[in-house]
Every structure is written in C-alpha cells, then in structure tokens.
Amino acid sequence: MAVDAILLSGPTASGKSAWALALAERLPLEIVSIDSAQVYRGFDIGAAKPDAATRARVPHHLLDLRAPHESFSAGECVAAALDAIAAIRARGRLPLLVGGTMLYFNSLVRGIARLPSADPALRAAIDAEAAERGWPAMHAELAKVDPVAAARIHPNDPQRIQRALEVQRATGVPISVWQRDTKPRHALQFARFALVPEDRGRLHANIAARWQAMLDAGFVEEVRALRALPDLPADATSLRAVGYRQLWGHLAGEYDLSQASTLAIAATRQLAKRQITWINADPGWRRLDPDADDARSHWFRVVADVWQPTGR
User: Does the pLDDT value for residue 312 go beyond 50?
Assistant: First the structure.
C-alpha cells in the first residue's frame, strides 16, 4: 500500500539521522525534523542539528523556526509538518519525518485534544504551590488525581505537570480523559518505523560517546553564547533540552564540567528510556533493531515498496 510519508523515530543516539541520510542516497526525499530542540536557532551542537553541508545535500525542514526565548507547541509542530509534507509531495519527493520528540509524533498521528483554555490565575496558584512544595510533589499529587497522565509525564517536567493539574482543577475532569477525544487534522497515510536497540548497553555507550563528541565540537561554548543573550531566561522552554540545562547549570557555577557531564548522560539515558516507553505503548510503530544484520537494507526495501511519487 502506498503512503504519503515515512516516519522514523527512536531513542536518542539510536542512529536515526544516519539512517535517514543513507536512505536519501537511494530515494528522492526531503527530511522533516520532529525535534523539540532543533526548532531553535543557536541550538546546533547539543541538538545534533545537521550541518550546512548536509542540509545542502539533502533538504531539511522545521529547523531554526524559533528564537531561543520563544515557545513551540505540539500543535505548531503538526501544522508546520503538514505544510512541509504537502510541499514535498507537490515536488514529487518523499517526506521523511525524523526525530525523537514522541509527543509531536503522537500529535501528528492521533491528533491533539481540544483542551480548555489556559487559566492564568489558576496557573499562577499552581506555580506558587510548586515553589513551596517542589515539582516532584506536584507530580505526586497528579498521580493521585490522574494516574494515566502522571505515568506519561516526567516528575521534572513542570510545564506538563502544571497544565495537567490546571485542567483537572478547572474542570474536575482529568486531562487524560480530555485527551481521549482526539482526531488527526488530516487523512494522510503514514508508514511508521522506530529504531529500538535490543542491546541497551550499546545504546548507553553511544549516548556517552555522543556527549563527548558534542563537548569536543564546542558544546560548552554554544551554551555560553546562549547565556549571553539578553532575552533568554534560565527557565525558557528551550533550555529544558537535555544537555543544555546541565551545561547552563555548570556555567552558572552550580557544578563542574565533570558533574554536568554525569548529569547530562544520566538525563539522556532517562530520555531514551521514556522514548522507548512511548514506542512500546503504540503498536503502530514497526520496531527495528539498528544493530541487527541487514536491518538497514531491509528498511530500504520496505520504504521503496510503500512509497510512490505523487501522481501515481
């Protein structure tokens, strides 16, 4: 069956970018980034953003859309991705959506719930309560009133904890119930693949090696440049990205570089675990072990079979 776009997800450091670029050598495709850090200008090394030479060779979309102090939502990602898919298809090329931000992928595939509007007063009250009790305690409260949402939200994700509590307190209905009534904004057909290494030890080694490569490439200097921006506060949404927040703390004098590295590698491993959990919970993802023999060439064949240019 022919599809409109290919989706390639997987945990960080699983090799998604390398697989995508290798496919670009065989099929006329353009890459659409589904990544919550690559949308920010100046987030290059730590976001593993493709360099200028790579982008000249293979067109990339949804990069550098926002200044570091701006926000970028799942809804905005879906709208931008749909526009990119339509434009790529109109050129007779294959849209290949690649990334690890599973919330964005889920919103694209399943739609976004029509949640109640924000309540500034209630939101301020939750923030004040969190300042007293801490966000892990707020997460524990969320687990009591909405265990389904709490299971999906990390205890160190204040933005999503706040929103879940806000919706539940404002309406008396858990946000997870609101989110059941979702529909995609399109009728597109996707073929979805996820790189999930069976050897977790190798994945962890890749994470550590990539961190060191980022440091060698000037990641600390990149974050130092971000800290010099006059309009970028320490609590900006963009700085929740793993690696950036640890180096920000290091440059703020909270800990040395060795401690920052330990924290960043641990946080990246936790992120990878959450990404795999998202994938495992959704049977629509076809799992591939990137380390298995012939896995990549098998994927090439499958993609070639399901994709046909516009006008078929």
Answer: no
